[in-house]
């Protein structure tokens, strides 16, 4: 009976050592998984933060250039009603005004 108990204990010891090796591998794997999830979050968050910081000035410069090309944003010219020459208006507009 002592022999049977020794065999069972040895087998139990071997199984426990195998389980310990597997647990260590799992622990290492979990650490790498946590590290890569942090890296993944940083890969997503850093470009968003940089975009929030640097894009508005760049876009406003681009918009200013575009408005300058189109002549928008230079202000509305004041029109003096007495300075309008009715003869220089297009005929369609004259017909519309007469109605």
Structural features, described:
The protein is an all-alpha fold and 99 residues long. It has one domain. 78% of the residues lie in helices and 0% in strands. It has two helices and no strands. The longest helix has 69 residues, at 2-70. The radius of gyration is 40 Å and the shape is rod-shaped. The N and C termini lie far apart (121 Å).
Please give a quick description of this structure.
Helices cover about 80% and strands about 0% of the residues. By secondary structure, the protein is mostly helical.
Name some characteristics of this structure.
99 residues; mainly alpha
User: In percent terms, what proportion of residues is strand?
Assistant: under 5%
Large-scale geometry = rod-shaped
Integer-rounded radius of gyration: 40 Å
Please give the domain count. 1
Averaging pLDDT over every residue, what do you get? 86
- The amount of helix comes to over 70%
Structural class designation: mainly alpha
User: Could you give the count of β-strands?
Assistant: 0
Largest sheet: none
Q: Which consecutive residue ranges, at least 5 long each, have pLDDT under 50?
A: none
- SSE sequence, one letter per element: HH
How many separate helices? 2
Q: Report how far the terminal alpha carbons are from each other.
A: 121 Å
